[in-house]
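can u do me a favor
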Protein backbone atom coordinates (compact mmCIF):
# COMPACT_ATOMS: atom_id res chain seq x y z
CA UNK A 1 0.00 0.00 0.00
CA UNK A 2 2.80 2.39 0.87
CA UNK A 3 4.13 1.47 -2.57
CA UNK A 4 0.74 2.56 -3.91
CA UNK A 5 1.13 5.92 -2.16
CA UNK A 6 4.65 6.16 -3.56
CA UNK A 7 3.32 5.31 -7.04
CA UNK A 8 0.68 8.03 -6.69
CA UNK A 9 3.34 10.54 -5.70
CA UNK A 10 5.64 9.42 -8.54
CA UNK A 11 2.81 9.67 -11.05
CA UNK A 12 2.03 13.15 -9.78
CA UNK A 13 5.70 14.11 -10.03
CA UNK A 14 5.83 12.75 -13.59
CA UNK A 15 2.66 14.64 -14.49
CA UNK A 16 4.28 17.90 -13.44
CA UNK A 17 7.50 17.03 -15.23
CA UNK A 18 9.78 16.15 -12.34
CA UNK A 19 12.04 13.27 -13.29
CA UNK A 20 13.31 10.83 -10.74
CA UNK A 21 10.55 8.23 -10.49
CA UNK A 22 10.98 6.77 -13.88
CA UNK A 23 10.32 8.32 -17.26
CA UNK A 24 9.11 11.82 -16.42
CA UNK A 25 9.30 14.18 -19.37
CA UNK A 26 10.20 17.84 -19.47
CA UNK A 27 8.87 20.67 -21.56
CA UNK A 28 11.75 21.81 -23.76
CA UNK A 29 10.45 25.40 -23.74
CA UNK A 30 10.86 25.73 -19.98
CA UNK A 31 14.38 26.00 -18.58
CA UNK A 32 15.14 22.94 -16.40
CA UNK A 33 15.92 24.97 -13.27
CA UNK A 34 12.61 26.89 -13.45
CA UNK A 35 10.72 23.70 -14.25
CA UNK A 36 12.28 21.87 -11.31
CA UNK A 37 11.49 24.74 -8.91
CA UNK A 38 7.82 24.65 -9.86
CA UNK A 39 7.75 20.86 -9.72
CA UNK A 40 9.51 20.81 -6.34
CA UNK A 41 7.01 23.33 -4.98
CA UNK A 42 4.08 21.19 -6.20
CA UNK A 43 5.62 18.02 -4.74
CA UNK A 44 6.21 19.76 -1.40
CA UNK A 45 2.61 21.01 -1.40
CA UNK A 46 1.33 17.49 -2.08
CA UNK A 47 3.45 16.07 0.76
CA UNK A 48 2.05 18.72 3.11
CA UNK A 49 -1.51 17.95 1.99
CA UNK A 50 -0.95 14.24 2.70
CA UNK A 51 0.54 15.07 6.10
CA UNK A 52 4.11 13.86 5.57
CA UNK A 53 7.27 15.79 6.34
CA UNK A 54 8.93 15.25 2.98
CA UNK A 55 8.65 13.50 -0.31
CA UNK A 56 10.80 11.49 -2.64
CA UNK A 57 10.82 8.41 -4.79
CA UNK A 58 13.13 6.42 -2.49
CA UNK A 59 11.58 3.53 -0.59
CA UNK A 60 13.48 0.89 1.35
CA UNK A 61 11.65 -2.38 0.70
CA UNK A 62 14.18 -4.63 2.46
CA UNK A 63 12.64 -4.30 5.97
CA UNK A 64 9.34 -5.60 4.61
CA UNK A 65 10.58 -8.94 3.31
CA UNK A 66 8.60 -12.08 4.09
CA UNK A 67 10.16 -14.28 6.76
CA UNK A 68 9.04 -17.71 7.97
CA UNK A 69 7.41 -16.15 11.03
CA UNK A 70 5.60 -13.53 8.98
CA UNK A 71 4.46 -16.20 6.54
CA UNK A 72 3.02 -18.34 9.34
CA UNK A 73 1.25 -15.30 10.79
CA UNK A 74 -0.21 -14.51 7.36
CA UNK A 75 -1.55 -18.05 6.94
CA UNK A 76 -3.07 -18.02 10.43
CA UNK A 77 -4.80 -14.68 9.81
CA UNK A 78 -6.20 -15.83 6.46
CA UNK A 79 -7.35 -19.16 7.87
CA UNK A 80 -9.20 -17.51 10.78
CA UNK A 81 -12.21 -16.57 8.66
CA UNK A 82 -14.59 -16.99 11.61
CA UNK A 83 -13.24 -13.84 13.24
CA UNK A 84 -14.67 -11.50 10.61
CA UNK A 85 -16.83 -8.54 11.50
CA UNK A 86 -18.70 -5.94 9.49
CA UNK A 87 -17.89 -2.31 10.23
CA UNK A 88 -19.25 0.83 8.62
CA UNK A 89 -17.57 4.11 7.91
CA UNK A 90 -19.83 7.14 7.64
CA UNK A 91 -18.89 9.40 4.74
CA UNK A 92 -20.07 12.91 3.96
CA UNK A 93 -19.74 15.25 1.01
CA UNK A 94 -16.18 16.57 0.82
CA UNK A 95 -14.62 13.59 2.62
CA UNK A 96 -10.93 13.09 1.83
CA UNK A 97 -10.62 10.19 -0.64
CA UNK A 98 -7.06 9.34 0.36
CA UNK A 99 -7.78 9.30 4.11
CA UNK A 100 -10.84 7.15 3.44
CA UNK A 101 -8.84 4.74 1.26
CA UNK A 102 -5.94 4.45 3.72
CA UNK A 103 -8.19 3.82 6.72
CA UNK A 104 -10.32 1.29 4.84
CA UNK A 105 -7.26 -0.47 3.45
CA UNK A 106 -5.66 -0.79 6.89
CA UNK A 107 -8.79 -2.19 8.54
CA UNK A 108 -9.44 -4.73 5.79
CA UNK A 109 -5.82 -5.90 5.83
CA UNK A 110 -6.35 -7.13 9.39
CA UNK A 111 -8.30 -10.02 7.92
CA UNK A 112 -10.93 -9.41 10.60
CA UNK A 113 -12.94 -6.52 9.18
CA UNK A 114 -15.10 -5.84 6.13
CA UNK A 115 -15.69 -2.11 5.76
CA UNK A 116 -18.75 -0.56 4.13
CA UNK A 117 -19.20 3.12 3.34
CA UNK A 118 -22.50 4.46 4.70
CA UNK A 119 -24.31 7.76 4.38
CA UNK A 120 -27.76 8.95 5.40
CA UNK A 121 -27.93 10.96 2.17
CA UNK A 122 -26.95 8.17 -0.24
CA UNK A 123 -24.20 8.97 -2.78
CA UNK A 124 -21.60 11.49 -1.60
CA UNK A 125 -19.21 13.66 -3.55
CA UNK A 126 -15.68 13.19 -2.25
CA UNK A 127 -13.04 15.92 -2.11
CA UNK A 128 -11.59 14.86 -5.47
CA UNK A 129 -14.99 15.12 -7.15
CA UNK A 130 -15.55 11.37 -7.34
CA UNK A 131 -19.00 10.19 -6.32
CA UNK A 132 -19.06 7.34 -3.82
CA UNK A 133 -22.25 5.29 -3.70
CA UNK A 134 -22.71 4.69 0.01
CA UNK A 135 -25.42 2.53 1.48
CA UNK A 136 -27.59 3.27 4.49
CA UNK A 137 -26.22 2.62 7.98
CA UNK A 138 -27.29 -0.61 9.65
CA UNK A 139 -27.45 -1.67 13.27
CA UNK A 140 -25.63 -4.93 12.55
CA UNK A 141 -22.33 -3.22 11.74
CA UNK A 142 -20.34 -1.16 14.22
CA UNK A 143 -19.09 2.28 13.14
CA UNK A 144 -15.45 3.07 12.38
CA UNK A 145 -14.14 6.55 13.09
CA UNK A 146 -12.79 8.82 10.39
CA UNK A 147 -11.69 12.24 11.62
CA UNK A 148 -12.25 14.92 8.99
CA UNK A 149 -9.68 17.25 10.59
CA UNK A 150 -6.83 14.77 10.11
CA UNK A 151 -4.61 14.67 7.04
CA UNK A 152 -4.50 11.31 5.24
CA UNK A 153 -1.27 10.00 6.78
CA UNK A 154 -2.34 11.19 10.23
CA UNK A 155 -5.61 9.28 9.74
CA UNK A 156 -3.63 6.19 8.77
CA UNK A 157 -1.50 6.50 11.92
CA UNK A 158 -4.66 6.87 14.02
CA UNK A 159 -6.21 3.84 12.32
CA UNK A 160 -3.10 1.76 12.99
CA UNK A 161 -3.31 2.74 16.66
CA UNK A 162 -6.99 1.73 16.72
CA UNK A 163 -6.07 -1.62 15.17
CA UNK A 164 -3.40 -2.12 17.84
CA UNK A 165 -5.92 -1.26 20.54
CA UNK A 166 -8.49 -3.73 19.21
CA UNK A 167 -6.31 -6.61 17.98
CA UNK A 168 -2.85 -6.00 19.45
CA UNK A 169 0.49 -4.67 18.26
CA UNK A 170 1.34 -7.82 16.31
CA UNK A 171 -1.62 -7.42 13.96
CA UNK A 172 -0.96 -3.69 13.59
CA UNK A 173 2.63 -4.54 12.65
CA UNK A 174 1.34 -7.11 10.14
CA UNK A 175 -0.87 -4.48 8.49
CA UNK A 176 2.11 -2.12 8.30
CA UNK A 177 4.18 -4.95 6.81
CA UNK A 178 1.60 -5.57 4.07
CA UNK A 179 1.32 -1.85 3.33
CA UNK A 180 5.10 -1.42 3.40
CA UNK A 181 4.45 1.46 5.75
CA UNK A 182 7.46 2.33 7.90
CA UNK A 183 7.24 2.38 11.68
CA UNK A 184 7.21 5.87 13.19
CA UNK A 185 6.61 7.29 16.64
CA UNK A 186 3.15 8.42 15.48
CA UNK A 187 1.91 4.96 14.50
CA UNK A 188 3.59 2.88 17.21
CA UNK A 189 3.36 5.06 20.35
CA UNK A 190 -0.42 5.01 20.59
CA UNK A 191 -2.22 6.66 23.47
CA UNK A 192 -4.18 4.22 25.58
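np, heres the sequence
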Amino acid sequence: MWNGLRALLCASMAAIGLAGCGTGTRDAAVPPAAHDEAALAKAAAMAAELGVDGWGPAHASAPFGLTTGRGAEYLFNKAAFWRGERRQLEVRDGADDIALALATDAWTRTGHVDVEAVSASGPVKLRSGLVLVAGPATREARPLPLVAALKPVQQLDRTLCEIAGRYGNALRDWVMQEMEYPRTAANTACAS
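The chain is about 45% helix and 10% strand. hope that helps!!
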